[in-house]
Structures are given as C-alpha cells and as structure tokens.
Amino acid sequence: MSPRHLDTPADTRRRFRLNLDSDVVGVYSERVARFLGTGRYLAIQTIVVIIWIFLNIGVFAFEWDPYPFILLNLAFSTQAAYAAPLILLAQNRQENRDRISLDEDRRRAAQTKDDTEFLARELAAVRLAVGDTVTRDYLRRELEDAVEDIAERVAAKLRDEAPGTRSDESGT
C-alpha cells in the first residue's frame, strides 16, 4: 500500500481506465479505412443489401425487417457512426506522416542547399588557385619558347665560331 499524504484528499472512487495504445488503434483504424475505401467492400456491401432486401420482401418466411427496412437503416447508421471517426483518425495519422515527411524534405533541401553553396565556394577557390598555377599549355608554350631561344643562341654562337666569320679576324 502506497503512503498517503495527509494534505491530499483520498480518492474513494474507483476509476475504470481503458488504456489503449493510440498507435495500435491508429493502425487498425487505417486498415478499416483502407478496406472501406475499396471496391471489394462496396461489392460485399451491395451483395449483403441485395440479399437482405430479397429475404425481407415477403417472398420468404424470414421477413425479420419488413419493407421500410428500419433494421437495415440502423445497421447502416451504426456502420457510418463507426466508419467516420475511423476514417478521420486514419486521415489525421496520414496528415501527421505527411507533415513529418514535409519537415524531413525541408531539412534535406536545406542541407542540400548548404552543401551546394559550400561546393560552389570550394570550386571558386580551386578556380582561383588554378589561375595562379602553371597549366600544361602554358608550360608547353614556355618550353617551346625556351627551346627556340636556345636554338637561336646556339645558331648564333655557331655562326660566330665558324672560321672566317669572326669579327676580330676580319680586320687583320
């Protein structure tokens, strides 16, 4: 027995609490709502109504619900009274899932945008860094120019060293 506090009145009424897991109720309500929205359910309900009316029109001796079919209307009313809240509960659960999915999509879109902006900044930095570095074409042009310059110098030196072409020998 739990200790009672003297400053709290005792609850002498017994309470009946029905503890239902809302997820379990939601799952079953979605199943019922999904079934109620199918052509199979409509076909079954139509067949039941036709049989009900056929058995109660007086052809057979069963006639438990004569012509205005009050019992059938009561069955439809009861079915509608339970189906409507179950369908609404299923729609609320779907709306919650859609909201969570939308929030997740927004989070992913924001992350993708941030990643794209980061990559754009990195690409710009790489372009700037590449602009300051030597490219293959630039190096090839510089090497070709250096080879031409060396070839010209070697040719000039060879001309200068050839016999009879020296400038100091021509005057003597």
TrEMBL record:
What protein does this entry describe? DUF1003 domain-containing protein
Pfam families (UniProt xref)? DUF1003
Ranges annotated as spanning the membrane: 41-62, 68-90
Per UniProt, the keywords (alphabetical) are: Membrane, Transmembrane, Transmembrane helix
